[in-house]
Amino acid sequence: MHTRKNQRNLTAEEKRRLVGALLELKRSGQYDEFVRMHDAFYVPDGQNRPRAAHMTPSFFPWHRRYLLEFERALQRIDPDVTVPYWDWTADRAPGASLWADDFLGGTGRFGDRQVMTGPFAYRNGNWRITSRITDGKYLTRDLGRPSDPVHLPTAGEVRRALADPVYDTAPWDSTARTGFRNSIEGWSAGGEERWRNHNRVHRWVGGLMLGATSPNDPVFWLHHAFIDLLWDRWQRAHPRSGYLPRTPPAGSDPQAGRVFALHDPLPPWEVRPAELLDHSRVYRYV
After folding, report:
1. CA 121 to CA 118: how far, in whole Å?
2. Cα 9 to Cα 5: distance, rounded to the nearest angstrom
3. If you average pLDDT over residues 67-77, what whole number do you get?
4. pLDDT above 70: percentage of residues in the chain
5. What are the two backbone dihedrals, phi and then psi, of residue 269, each rounded to the nearest 5 degrees?
6. What is the per-residue pLDDT for 281?
7. What is the 8-class DSSP label of residue 12?
8. Residues 178, 166: contact at Cβ < 8 Å?
9. ∠ CA(154), CA(174), CA(107), 5° rounding?
10. CA-CA distances (angstroms) from residue 157 to 161, 163, 181?
């Protein structure tokens, strides 16, 4: 079993080794395969096909397995590397430790939003964006979107989501009005308030974190490690609650064949949500 730490508690050596493994995974071409996988499984409500990764109850288990596969790829390079988490309710500013030059680098420059600092800056020659032509060739960010400010979610907003004892509710998509899953994933109707929790963090970072190929920015993994930790906290707070739906929607339901019930195999690994409910034998959070 390995340990995932808060990024603010990483030692300089742990940061160096994580960055080194990320750069080597990029050089090998495997990193971009993970980016393309996320792009392929980002299926919005409006598309009449199965939704495994987003706007769906399997948001948490799909990303748990995705993150674990990525972490294992890093560990094949350096067995001591794990994916840290970014608690964005505490580290809320562009000057926070994860944006330092020796770790993820900072925000993008004015104009094209190109990241110019840190190991993932295009000018350093190690991080070329290749997943989609429309993404450009360099990493972009616009932390906090100063021209039209976005604020990271607060601890209070997360507490309200964690207080919901129901995992998810019909219609099992981005329009679900209650339920822990959508409260954290963060879809709702109307203006900037549409973007809550998970979604608002993507918008706060900006740049390439805004689209389906958001794993192009290494901060994606730290963000989703925290999302995974929040699911763990919800499970501990509501031990009698569980993943929903337990059984597939009826054939007459518009969501039939489009969402994954507790025992439905999730692509591309064919692992069931029921097999991803407990991570305690594989990793822990501190």
Report:
1. 6
2. 7
3. 98
4. 98
5. -95, -15
6. 96
7. H
8. yes
9. 45
10. 7, 10, 14
For residue 68, what are its two tokens?
């674990």
Output the CA torsion 184→168→35→151 (10° steps): -20
Q: What is the mean pLDDT of the chain?
A: 95
Asked if 68 and 61 count as a contact pair (C-beta separation under 8 A), the reply is: no
Token pair recorded at residue 167? 């995992």
Is the domain covering 2-285 a CATH 1.10.1280.10 domain?
Answer: yes
Spans of all domains in the chain: 2-285
Rounded to whole angstroms, the Cα distance separating 204 from 47 reads 26
Inform me whether the pLDDT recorded for 9 exceeds 60.
yes
Distance between CA atoms of residues 230 and 158, nearest Å: 8
Q: How far is CA 191 from the centre of its chain?
A: 22
At 127, list the tokens. 């991080």
Query: Is 179 exposed, middle or buried (CB count within 10 Å of its CB: 0-12, 13-18, 19+)?
Result: buried
Mean pLDDT for the stretch of residues 39-59: 95
- CB-CB contact of 215 with 222 (8 Å): no
Q: Is the pLDDT of residue 176 over 80?
A: yes
Whole-number Cα distances in Å, 171 to 8, 176, 178: 38, 6, 10
Token code pair at residue 224: 């989703």
